[in-house]
Specification:
Blueprint (H helix, E strand, L loop, with lengths): L4 E4 L12 E4 L32 E4 L19 E2 L4 E7 L6 E7 L5 E7 L15 E2 L5 E4 L4 E5 L11 E4 L3 H6 L1 H5 L2 E3 L4 E2 L5 E7 L10 E5 L5 E5 H5 L6 E2 L6 E2 L5 E7 L6 E7 L5 E6 L20 E2 L5 E5 L11 E5 L19 E4 L12 E6 L14 E12 L6 E10 L11
Antiparallel strand pairs: 1-7, 2-3, 4-5, 5-6, 6-7, 8-9, 9-10, 10-11, 12-14, 13-14, 14-15, 15-16, 17-19, 18-19, 19-20, 20-21, 22-23, 23-24, 25-26, 26-27, 27-28
Length: about 425
């Protein structure tokens, strides 16, 4: 394995201005574990934000962006913030890959240290996100090469043992033939950590390995013990090839279930699965279906939709419509915790993980739901209903409303706001 390289003490090299930047509006000293903030992906901070009108500092998150025409087909990884206020930022360093973690003071952006990782991207169209996470012990867990996970035990100061690695299929197996795994096994989702410090992530396998690995879901226990299950075995469908790229596993509120989506390839069909968080045995399964047409929903590796577990245990997951291309909006599918009951869908699901909004934040809300959802709510300038107005909306998960675009009953919008610019996400401008 190529050893991770730590840099600290000195100032970072000069950073040329780039379009892709992280803009920090402080979370103060509240911990933010990584993707969507926590293992349920609620995106609810434990600390109130400061006013959003001022950008306190900024720094590039892509040192070598590669455009397709005028479109930048890249998903940037979520930063993590320790309880002591150290921001841990994933940064793409090369044209086709290369990732490092930069540690900066959350309040000011002051550089503390950086760690170059050996991580290699899985096959992709859009560049997948590089997704580290903080564990319950305060360690930083980040994707490595060949299915390995790199751990930094004290990311606030990066002293003592700088890093160590753990492997979901066993250190001895990896050490016996590292090149075989480095070239064929790729961590392909952000890492999720539960409250006990166990790690979960999806992995893709592109060729033969000594262990005959197939793409699926991996678990690394807090003591470093690894286990895994293939997507085909977990779903009971031999056609399933892997966890959907970028689909960060979500953990139930009681910690007993891990939810993840699998597919049979990019833009393929698939399932939302509930697995025992200790054994990875399948406990729940739902075929993902377009609620209007009844066709198998399309699960794209080019998006970042991941399951959200609501405060009541319900599970939400975004998919594309089928047939594809009528609106490019997809659906936010909604299930009970057992995945046996499909509930009111949301009118938009493509490339989006909803966030929880406490009803106390919407004083004029007079409905019955105990929480609301904030979602992307675009209406791309395609098709007869596409007006090119892209929005962010707060929607009610328990109230139905006839959506004017799909002409289908979906979650009722409580309020929405249009983007200040024209529709550029879909048309490539």
């Amino acid at each position: 394995m190529r050893t991770p390289v730590l840099r600290r003490s000195a100032r970072p090299r000069s950073l040329r201005p780039r379009i892709e930047r992280l803009e920090v509006r402080s979370l103060l000293n509240g911990a933010w574990a990584g993707y969507a903030g926590n293992a349920q992906h609620t995106a609810v901070s434990t600390v109130a934000s400061q006013p959003l009108e001022t950008i306190r500092w900024q720094t590039p998150v892509d040192m070598n962006p590669q455009y397709s025409g005028t479109t930048l087909l890249v998903h940037c990884g979520s930063p993590a913030i320790t309880s002591s206020g150290t921001l841990l930022l994933p940064v793409k360093t090369g044209a086709t890959g290369g990732f490092q973690i930069q540690a900066r003071t959350e309040a000011t952006g002051e550089f503390l240290w950086s760690l170059d990782t050996p991580y290699a991207l899985p096959p992709h169209n859009w560049v997948p996100s590089y997704g580290p996470t903080l564990t319950s012990s305060g360690a930083l867990a980040m994707p490595g090469v060949g299915g390995q996970v790199i751990l930094v035990d004290n990311p606030d100061v990066a002293t003592g043992p700088v890093s160590r690695t753990v492997t979901f299929f066993g250190e001895a197996n990896y050490a016996a033939n590292p090149s075989a795994y480095n070239s064929q096994v790729f961590i392909s989702t952000p890492i999720t950590a539960d409250n006990a410090g166990n790690l979960y992530f999806g992995f893709t396998v592109t060729g033969a390995t000594p262990l005959n690995l197939k793409g699926g879901l991996a678990r690394i226990a807090a003591d470093g013990t690894g286990s895994f299950v293939s997507a085909a075995t977990a779903s009971g469908d031999a056609a399933m090839a892997k966890v959907v790229t970028n689909c960060a596993p979500a953990i139930s509120n009681d910690g007993r279930t891990v939810y993840v989506a699998v597919n049979n390839g990019n833009f393929g069909r698939g399932y939302l699965l509930g697995l025992d968080s200790t054994t990875l045995a399948t406990t729940a399964k739902a075929a993902l279906v377009d609620p209007k047409t009844g066709n198998a929903s399309i699960l794209s590796d080019d998006g970042t939709a991941s399951p959200l577990v609501g405060p009541d245990g319900d599970v939400y997951y975004g998919v594309l419509e089928s047939p594809f291309g009528t609106t490019y909006r997809g659906w936010l599918l909604h299930f009970d915790s057992t995945l046996t009951q499909a509930k009111i869908p949301g009118a938009f699901g493509w490339d989006d993980t909803p966030s929880i909004v406490p009803v106390s934040m919407v004083p004029d809300y007079d409905g019955t739901s105990s929480f609301l959802l904030m979602v992307k709510y675009n209406n791309y300038a395609v098709g007869p209903q596409g007006d090119g107005v892209n929005r962010v909306a707060v929607i009610d998960p328990s109230e139905a409303n006839l959506d004017p675009v799909s002409k289908f009953l979906t979650m009722e919008p409580v309020r929405s706001i249009a983007a200040p610019t024209a529709d550029h996400e879909h048309d490539g401008n």
